[in-house]
Structures are given as C-alpha cells and as structure tokens.
Amino acid sequence: MNTDALSAILNDPEAMKKITAIASELSAPAKSAAPAAESQSDPSAELLQRAVPLLSSIAKSGQHAADPNRLRLLAALKPFVSGATASELDHAARLLSVAHMARTAAVQILSSNPSAPKEV
Predict the structure, then answer these.
(1) In 3D, which of 112, 67, 69 has the Cα closest to residue 104?
(2) CA-CA distance, 22 to 44, in Å (whole number)?
(3) Which end of the chain has less neighbouring CB within 10 Å, N or C?
(4) CA distances from 4 to 13, 34, 118 (A)
(5) 22-56 confidence digits (pLDDT tens)
(6) d(CA 65, CA 72)
(7) Tens of pLDDT, residues 55-107
(8) How many Å separate Cα 76 from the centre of its chain?
(9) What is the three-state SS of 45-110?
(10) How far does CA 86 lie from the centroid of its chain?
(11) What's the CA gap between 55 and 70, in Å, rounded?
C-alpha cells in the first residue's frame, strides 16, 4: 500500500471509526450473545486505537525517507536509462522507504520496552 494512502487513512478520524467498527464486527461473536457482553469494551478496538499512533509515525517516516529533490532528480533521469535501470531506481526508493519505516517501528517498540537494548 502506498504510504501516502496509509497516512491519509490513519489521519482521517472517520476512516478510523469505520476501521474500528469493522474490526469489532469481525472479532465479535454471533449476534445472539448476551447484552451484557455488548457493554464490555472490545479488545480489538482498544488495540487498534493504541496502534494508530504507532502506524501513523511509521507511515510518516516512510514518506520522508529520502530527500524529495533527489527523488525528483532520479525520476527525471528515468527516460534516459534502460527499463531495467529505471525499475531498479524505483525499487531502491521503495526499499529506502521500507528501511526507514522498519527503523521507526523498531525505535517505537524498543522505547515501549524498558528492558530492550537502547540502540537500533
């Protein structure tokens, strides 16, 4: 999924409400459950709400993985290189984005665990 699209979804409160509702429906038992069960909080919705800031920061880190001017330069060069080289340039940009997202995720996870190593 495109990181811009992911960021747009994570930053849209309406979309997050829909996702939370879908997660609740998917994890909920059959509708014949007792009404008392409905008054309890949904663990999947709570988990999703806790994960949103983490996912948002990870997606944002992927967007800012490389200098936009350098990415534009590489995109401008693509018509002048072979198809394989142009494909490799695109692949390298995606890998850079994924690497930054993985580093951000590791930092977030390690910062929430006090017994984890301090360096990433």
Answers:
(1) 112
(2) 10
(3) N
(4) 16, 41, 30
(5) 766 665 555 544 444 444 677 777 777 777 877 77
(6) 13
(7) 777 777 777 777 888 888 888 999 999 999 999 988 988 888 888 888 888 88
(8) 28
(9) HHHHHHHHHHHHHHHHHHHCCCCHHHHHHHHHHHHHCCHHHHHHHHHHHHHHHHHHHHHHHHHHHH
(10) 26
(11) 26
- Cα angle vertex 90, ends 2, 65, to 5°? 60
Residue 120 pLDDT > 60 = no
- The pair of structure tokens assigned to 105 is 């995720």
Residue 67 confidence (pLDDT): 80
Structure tokens at 96: 């850079």
Asked if residues 104 and 58 have their Cβ atoms less than 8 Å apart, the reply is: yes
Q: Which residue has the tokens 């960021």?
A: 7
